[in-house]
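Good morning,

Both structures are done.
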Amino acid sequence: MYAEKFSQIKHPLQNRFCVEHAVHVHMNWFSSAHQTLPATTTVTIQEVNPWDIALCVTGTLISCENALVIAVLFYTPALRAPMFILIGSLAVADLLAGVGLILNFVFTYLIDSSMEFVTLLSVGLLISAFSASVLNILAITVDRYLSLYNALTYHTERTVTFTYMMVIFIWVSCLTLGLLPVLGWNCLKDESKCSICRPVTKNNAVVLAVTFLLVFALMMQLYLQICKIAFRHAQQIAVQHQFVAISTTKGVSTLSAILCAFGACWLPFAMYSIVADSSYPVIYTYATVLPATCCSVINPVIYAFRNPDIQKSLWMACCGCVPSSLSLRPRTSSDV
């Protein structure tokens, strides 16, 4: 009789342990080291983190948007200018970032996330994709600056060659960054060295964050020069002072919106990566990562869907006609 009573008490405790352990065992690469529990063979309930759901939904939206951009550029032969090459490269980077977020969710909840290969594959893809996204935005900024600074020689074969060289350099660099964790630059064997994004080490995370801050500073400098050139060109060709004020004000507003959106998305995560490590609460990591991923949601709107040529292609593909409200003048990268 005593054995039966003990068994009745023991079984609820066992079930409670299985439930509580299952809540913690499915942690993804954002998890901090002190929150990881030893794995067991019995898991009965799998609780999905709402932050992971938000990241997966964001990744799905990113993938759909950028797949549409890539399809439009691929099936429209007229969109082969240097600007569209860079927009296409940015769309590919953001598409891979979206796929990486989806795979991260799948690896966390549908596949055994304790496998080192799965963890390294997920983090490597995300590092490569988001690094390529940031560098492609910088390349688009450089292209806009050159189209104004060298307006007479911009539409030449040399510009196309330079654009392809930039794209190749970006992807080689970013793929190399993504391979570093796989090649041994990770903290899987020493959890104390982990950054907020396991298995990236704290030192590597700081290097990536500082590099981003340098890229952001360079973008600000280039956009400042673009504004100066745009003001000077507008004053030279304008007949009415009102036209100068309207056109230049609109251009400055557009550039300000681009910089503000980019900075608001990435600066919190970059700064937090510098000051924090794996001992910090994981919720802070999620709260800074989610806005950074949203930058890839905004990119197609800023750099692709606002472009009149891409808008025409979308209208032709969807409706078979082009609205009269769209300008007949093709847009170039010098339009700020």
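Second structure follows.
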Amino acid sequence: MNLSTNVKPISYLADEVYEKALSLFNILALGQNQIETGLFRSAGDVFADLDKD
């Protein structure tokens, strides 16, 4: 068994990019679920509340 051809180096950078992409997909899925169930406010309502302060 030749270890130099059978063992692949771990790419921590690639793993970090993968984890960040997976996190973004999860956030998008949560947002889509909230939109489908009606758990959101319009941007106009949010900005109107911010203007009150």
